[in-house]
C-alpha cells in the first residue's frame, strides 16, 4: 500500500521492525532464510509480514522477552512481492520469534509455491546473487 507522505504521517505508526496502518493492518519486519548449497549460513531476505492484530499485540508484548523463541509460530502472509516469482504478496507463512536481538524468521507455509521449494531444498550461489540484485 503506497501512501503519500501526509497520509503516512497520520495513518501509520512504525519503527524499523513494526508497523500499523490505521490500527487495522499490522506488519512485522522479518527474515526469510534460504539455504545456499555452497554456504554454511543461509541467504536471508528481509521482508514484511502481515499478521492479525491479536498476533501483532502478542509479538509486541514479547518483543524484548529473552524467552520469546518458545512462543508457537504465528500465521501471517508476506507483504512483499519478490521479483522472478509468481506473486508472493499474500503468500501464507509461519512467523517464528527468535530472540530480542534478531528479527523473526519466516517459513513459507504454501507447499505449492516455488518459494517453499527454494526454502526447503536450498538455492545456488547464483540464485543468491540474483536475489541480491533484485533488492539492490
Structural descriptors:
single chain, 136 residues
Q: Considering DSSP H and I runs of 4 or more, what fraction of the residues is helical?
A: 25-40%
Number of helices: 4
Outline the biggest β-sheet: 7 strands, antiparallel
What is the alpha-carbon Rg in Å?
15 Å
Structural class: alpha+beta
Please report which band the strand proportion falls in: under 5%, 5-15%, 15-25%, 25-35%, 35-45% or over 45%: 25-35%
What's the N-to-C terminus distance?
21 Å
Order of helices and strands: HEEEEHEEEHH
Name the shape in a single word: globular
Overall average pLDDT: 91
Counted beta strands: 7
Number of domains: 1
Poorly predicted runs are none
Structure description:
It is built from four helices and seven strands; from the N terminus they run H-E-E-E-E-H-E-E-E-H-H. The chain is α+β, with helices and mostly antiparallel strands and 136 residues long. A seven-stranded antiparallel sheet has the order 1-2-3-4-5-6-7. Strand 2 and strand 3 form a beta hairpin. It starts with a helix and ends with a helix. The model has no long low-confidence stretch (mean pLDDT 91).
Summarize the structure.
By secondary structure, the protein is α+β, with helices and mostly antiparallel strands.
Strand-helix topology:
Elements: H1 5-11, E1 12-14, E2 18-21, E3 25-34, E4 43-51, H2 53-62, E5 74-78, E6 92-96, E7 105-108, H3 114-121, H4 125-134
Antiparallel strand pairs: 1-2, 2-3, 3-4, 4-5, 5-6, 6-7
Amino acid at each position: 500500500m503506497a501512501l503519500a507522505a501526509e497520509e503516512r504521517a497520520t495513518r501509520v505508526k512504525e519503527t524499523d521492525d513494526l508497523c500499523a496502518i490505521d490500527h487495522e493492518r499490522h506488519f512485522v519486519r522479518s527474515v526469510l532464510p534460504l539455504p545456499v548449497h555452497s554456504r554454511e549460513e543461509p541467504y536471508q531476505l528481509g521482508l514484511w509480514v502481515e499478521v492479525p492484530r491479536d498476533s501483532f499485540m502478542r509479538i509486541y508484548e514479547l518483543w524484548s522477552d529473552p524467552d520469546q523463541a518458545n512462543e508457537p509460530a504465528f500465521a501471517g502472509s508476506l507483504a512483499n512481492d519478490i521479483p522472478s516469482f509468481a506473486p508472493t504478496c499474500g503468500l501464507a507463512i509461519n512467523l517464528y520469534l527468535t530472540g530480542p536481538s534478531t528479527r523473526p524468521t519466516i517459513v513459507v507455509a504454501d507447499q505449492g509455491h516455488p518459494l517453499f521449494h527454494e526454502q526447503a531444498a536450498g538455492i545456488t550461489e547464483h540464485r543468491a546473487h540474483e536475489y541480491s540484485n533484485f533488492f539492490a
